């Protein structure tokens, strides 16, 4: 029998708070498309936190029942939009805390007519823990999360044992968690914290091949040009019989 689903306690955030000032085109996209694509949630003490009592009916938000895919840290939508466009049969929920990045994503969603995305301006780790039923997520994407290099900041890293417990609770049996980073120390950290998790299986028993549908973003290209290696990982949620 699976253990009781964990509660995620986050006293620190896994991102650096940047300016929320938008340029003119972002402002236009924000006010034109926010109501259609951005899901408002009940916030906690911080503007990016998710209140424990917050709830979202995802089928109502999308107007249909479909497999749920979640991305945490979608940035300007460079990966999100083309990958969601390639998954028209899925409902894709993206978390991003920076409104200018969300506005840029909204513009791209509208321009490319990608109707199966909804965005939440909130901490994605908290959002995953609070806004989704257990065993309801078919796929999770966490690409190029902030590596927080300094040892004293490692507690801010998104990927860790506590977050893995939440992911395991929210993924359906057989569902997958796809990760990528271009920092070797963070990649090894991920392996250290995830390979031994009782409810997650490293699908490739090591590094995963690059997901073909994931485009090379501007951020990733800069890392490659700087000589860094991109590490992909894929973990699958064990089913009840395997756990």
Automatic annotation (TrEMBL):
Pathway: tRNA modification; N(7)-methylguanine-tRNA biosynthesis
GO-annotated molecular function: tRNA (guanine(46)-N7)-methyltransferase activity
Residues that coordinate or bind substrate: 150, 182, 217-220
Reactions accelerated catalytically: guanosine(46) in tRNA + S-adenosyl-L-methionine = N(7)-methylguanosine(46) in tRNA + S-adenosyl-L-homocysteine
Binding site for S-adenosyl-L-methionine: 71, 96, 123, 146
Domain of life of the organism encoding this protein: Bacteria
Keywords noted in UniProt: Methyltransferase, S-adenosyl-L-methionine, Transferase, tRNA processing
InterPro entries xrefs: SAM-dependent_MTases_sf, tRNA_(Gua-N-7)_MeTrfase_Trmb, tRNA_methyltr_TrmB_bact
EC numbers for this chain: 2.1.1.33
Gene Ontology annotations for the cellular component aspect, listed alphabetically: tRNA methyltransferase complex
Top EC class of this enzyme: transferase
Protein family according to the UniProt entry: Belongs to the class I-like SAM-binding methyltransferase superfamily. TrmB family.
UniProt function note: Catalyzes the formation of N(7)-methylguanine at position 46 (m7G46) in tRNA.
Record protein name field: tRNA (guanine-N(7)-)-methyltransferase
Source organism per UniProt: Tessaracoccus aquimaris
């Amino acid at each position: 029998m699976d253990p009781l689903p964990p509660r995620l306690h986050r006293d620190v955030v896994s991102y650096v708070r940047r300016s929320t000032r938008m340029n003119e085109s972002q402002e236009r996209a924000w006010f034109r498309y926010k109501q259609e694509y951005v899901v408002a949630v009940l916030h906690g003490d911080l503007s990016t936190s998710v209140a424990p009592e917050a709830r979202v009916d995802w089928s109502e938000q999308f107007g249909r029942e479909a497999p749920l895919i979640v991305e945490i840290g979608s940035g300007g939508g460079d990966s999100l939009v083309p990958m969601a466009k390639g998954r028209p049969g899925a409902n894709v929920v993206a978390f991003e805390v920076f409104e200018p990045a969300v506005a840029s994503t909204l513009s791209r969603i509208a321009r490319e007519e990608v109707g199966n995305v909804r965005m939440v301006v909130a901490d994605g780790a908290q959002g995953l823990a609070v806004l989704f039923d257990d065993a309801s997520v078919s796929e999770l994407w966490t690409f190029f999360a902030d590596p927080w290099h300094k040892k004293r900041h490692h507690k801010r890293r998104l990927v860790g044992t506590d977050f893995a417990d939440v992911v395991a609770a929210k993924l359906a049996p057989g569902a997958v968690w796809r990760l990528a980073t271009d920092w070797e120390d963070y990649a090894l950290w991920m392996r250290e914290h995830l390979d031994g998790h009782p409810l997650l299986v490293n699908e490739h028993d090591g590094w995963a091949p690059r997901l073909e549908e994931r485009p090379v973003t501007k951020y990733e290209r800069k890392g490659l040009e700087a000589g860094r290696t991109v590490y992909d990982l894929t973990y699958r949620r064990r089913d009840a019989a395997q756990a």
